[in-house]
Design a protein that fits this description.
Helix 6 packs across helix 10. The chain is mainly alpha-helical and 306 residues long. It folds into two domains: 89 residues, DNA polymerase, domain 1; 135 residues, hpI Integrase, Chain A (Orthogonal Bundle). 58% of the residues lie in helices and 4% in strands.
Length: 306
């Protein structure tokens, strides 16, 4: 079996056995292609791998380097498990570097409020034909902020994954991991019920909960374009993406004192280390609050310091 066939078989294993999501599979495919184009060998050894890692450090940021190395390492682990190789070179390769902390971008509360008010105001401008699509758009955005789910998770929610009586939604996350999120707001649940009743035939026909104008799945790209349209309509200059709702969801819950392990579970993070980034964002906000609103700032203290 040549290199190309082996990679194809590996990616099929990742898709159907490990049930990895399409974004991870896409990253694996790109990373492995770049690796083998550089090394020009079917199963490169330690020296070639070390050379490639050095090359990665010349071209990419630490986060990207870490991902690309992880993709290659996972492939070699697969080869070892299948007895295709007896000596895994990654057991002797140590790569350590410090990643700069990149704080996630969040949407200011006032802009979320402005955006939602703008979308709700559009109801008056809808026609009999466009009303159900307006309902879908507001339902999608409300669900993004209510659940903190990823945009592809929202896009792929199945009809039978939503219980409109209890407000419980089943989310299929990375690697096919399943989790449940509660829609706790009666107002949002009412929006979802209204949307469902207006689009029930198309929803049942497609099997997906959120559908496009043709009755198919409402894709991630369509959601991004829809959000961009309403952001512009609201007069918000900031480039708001669906993922920023996820960041905002987590950050504002931490600011309200919600336990981080609870947020980890809701977001579907496998490691709490991933969730801890939101503590940095909340701490930044805390510093701003203390700097601007601490009562000590308004006290008149007579002091004589030599």
């Amino acid at each position: 079996m040549n290199c190309t066939e082996q990679i194809t078989k590996y990616l099929e294993y990742c898709e159907f056995r490990k049930e990895l999501d399409r974004n991870t599979l896409k990253a694996y495919r790109i990373d492995l292609k770049q690796f083998f184009e550089y090394t020009m060998e079917e199963i490169p050894g330690r020296e070639k791998i070390e050379d490639y890692i050095t090359e990665l450090h010349k071209k990419f940021m630490p986060k990207t380097i870490k991902r690309k190395i992880a993709s290659i390492k996972a492939y070699y682990n697969y080869l070892e498990e299948r007895d295709i190789i007896s000596d895994n070179p990654f057991r002797k390769i140590k790569v350590k570097f410090k990643e700069a902390i990149i704080l996630p971008r969040i949407i200011p509360r006032e802009e979320i409020e402005l955006l939602l008010n703008c979308i709700y105001a559009q109801e008056k401008k809808t026609t009999t034909k466009t009303y159900k699509y307006w309902l879908r758009d507001i339902a999608v955005i409300e669900t993004l902020f209510a659940t903190g789910a990823r945009v592809y998770e929202i896009s792929n929610i199945r009809e039978d994954s939503v219980n409109l009586n209890t407000g419980l939604i089943r989310i299929m996350g990375k690697g096919g991991k399943e989790r449940y999120i509660q829609i706790a707001s009666s107002e949002i649940l009412a929006v979802l019920k209204n949307y469902y009743s207006e689009n029930i035939n198309q929803i049942k026909g497609s099997g997906f909960f959120f559908i496009n104008n043709r009755g198919g799945r409402y894709t991630e790209q369509s959601i991004r374009l829809m959000l961009k349209k309403y952001t512009k309509l609201a007069g918000i200059e900031r480039n708001i993406t669906p993922h920023m709702f996820r960041h905002s969801f987590a950050t504002y819950l931490i600011e309200e004192g919600v336990d981080i392990s609870c947020i980890q579970q809701i977001l579907g993070h496998s490691s709490i280390k991933t969730t801890q980034i939101y503590i940095h964002v909340a701490a930044k906000k805390q510093a701003e609050i203390l700097r601007e609103l601490h009562p000590r700032n308004r006290m008149h203290i007579l002091r004589d310091i030599a």
